[in-house]
Amino acid sequence: MRFVDEYRSEEAVRKFAAAIRKTVTRPWTLMEICGGQTHTLIRFGIDEMLPPSVTMVHGPGCPVCVTPLEMIDRALALAARPDVILTSFGDMLRVPGSKTDLLSLKAKGADVRMVYSPLDAVALAKTHPEKEVVFFAVGFETTAPANATAVWLAKRTGIRNFSLLVSHVLVPPAMEAILGSPANRVQGFLAAGHVCTVMGYREYEPIAAKHRIPVVVTGFEPLDLMQGIRMTLLALEEGRVGVENQYARSVTRDGNVKAQEVLREVFEVCDRPWRGIGVIPRSGWRLREEYAEHDAVKRFDVGAITAEEPSACIAGEILQGLKKPGACAAFGTECTPEKPLGAPMVSSEGACAAYYSYGRGI
Amino acid sequence: MPLSDYPHVLLAHGGGGRLTQRLIEQLFVPSFDNAHLSERHDGAVLDVGGRRLAFSTDSFVVKPLFFPGGDIGSLAVHGTVNDLAMCGAKPLALAAGLILEEGLPMADLRRIVASMTSAAKGVGVPIVTGDTKVVDRGKGDGVFVNVTGVGLVREGIEISPRRARPGDVVLVSGEIAVHGIAIMSVREGLRFDTELVSDSAPLDVLVEGVLAAAGERVHVLRDPTRGGVASTLNEIAEQAKVGIRLEEMRIPVSEEVRGACEILGLDPLYVANEGKCLVIVAPEAADAALAALKSHTLGRSAARIGEVVPDHPGKVVMRSRIGGLRVVDLLTGEQLPRIC
After folding, report:
1. Which of A346, B120, B219, B286 has the fewest CB atoms lying closer than 10 Å?
2. Could B322 and A143 be called an inter-chain contact, meaning their C-beta atoms sit closer than 8 Å?
3. Rounded to an integer, what distance in angstroms lies between the CA atom of residue B209 and that of residue B277?
4. Pick among A3, A338, A345 to test the B interface (most B CBs inside 10 A)
5. Tell me: the pLDDT tens digits for B238-257?
6. pLDDT at residue B340 above 60?
């Protein structure tokens, strides 16, 4: 298949693996930000082609994983209301809250629907004026423009029974949090190509300069990752800091300016709790006051919701790259994708789920 | 997680993955408890006066009822004919149970029945008995179809998932994941443009050719429907207590299916097929079996995709396109499109 096979060529990947072996003279620890990148690394076995002195640790960029338990419980409380049709992307529906999950609620009669685009949820609101249609909007900067467009469209066209339950998070503050931790061991980042397609990479330049590290914007195919890893290692070996762009076929320094305009119009920056990590200041987006009518948090009173993570889970350390899934006593025993104890086992993109599904450490 | 931990039936219990398996292992097999059921094949083989009778049933709940490349009627007939074929049997007769929803347009019912008739004629197997029930409006998806069938197992043929042994070769009869993607492309809320049509087809003649070419050296036949190739091979690995090793590069997947899977974030290995079969055959007969598959229209893209190995019993492992190794596990439920 064109534009896919080229990036999955065994020969090209092996060439990069050989080049990486020649580049590296001492141990380095890199973090790939995005869960999609983690997935590719493990699915294709890329990490096993790297020299043992290069350690890949897996970052927090899995949207389903970092959505706080309280927010999932809130979605569940909304879905349980008879007047609500709760919509979301497929992999969000399976995520367990404190007591149940959306698919189990559906089995008990709740109207929960999988959509492929938030615009489909707007269309649903239009055809079901007697119902409240809520779209559970999770994710990083990547999914935010479509969600912003949906709510913008609903407001412009007077679809008043559509609202968003927003749990958007942002990559740069999470990188700051990881780098600022005294236990940090990450020496270079592979930034998430899709996030940067929307946002560009200007905002990573001050982070790279402040922490004296290389950041390489990287794509998601095996060859992208190999090249991104090589570029990061080369910068480390040569003592260079700053942002480089491996994913130039999609990412520019300024990003998608039109998308950013819609984002600014609809969202404002807020503090946000991350599952397994805690509150990171100015690390999320919420709807602006002008869109309050379409804000599910303001529109529906579901009472105070508090939730507690299972104590056996070391998700915080996994998501910050401090530990690998195999280092957790509950991994693959008490904690499996069917009954996850914590965030990274929940989504297919989570580091623990990727290790589990592809048979690592079992 | 034990079955008792689920207070309600979830859709995933019918998804063909881990939860379906658990339902079978923890509820049906121990309750109905008999040697035929423990075989865990697509159908049972009964000894009747010296002849071996294959006996199988399958229910169909597809949405939409009419889809590119078929409809629930032809799908149901092909499904049961294929289950019988996978027992190494020549289908003899079918029974059809229809559960109709009040308000179903009579024209739709006629269309479905006509399609069942022509599918059954196509394989030369009569529908000899049946049953009809009607449920209240809103209590069914238009039509649910059950088709049960019997067939005679060919002399000298012994097909069972347990017969897979190290050294055996794994063949697939054509491009995978076509049915699942074709259905998904017309499903409400997920529609996308594609020229894909379901691969729904009867495999009895194809299988007859393979059995004529490789005979008793064919050890396992399975049609990888719900749950796809990955789930079916996992079941075989578990039942035969062997490992299976696949080569990603050798698995035939069409450009259209790969494109749709890339966009939706799905793995074609877990997507349903309705006109494909997996053949596990002794190594010395593999070439003959593959040639037999390829000589039939439905098997033109047949390929050798892997082998049975003594290592990692119960697990399926795949060498990726770029050379890495990974486990191909059972899914918990159905595959769901990803967020980004």
Report:
1. B286
2. no
3. 13
4. A338
5. 999 999 999 999 999 999 99
6. no
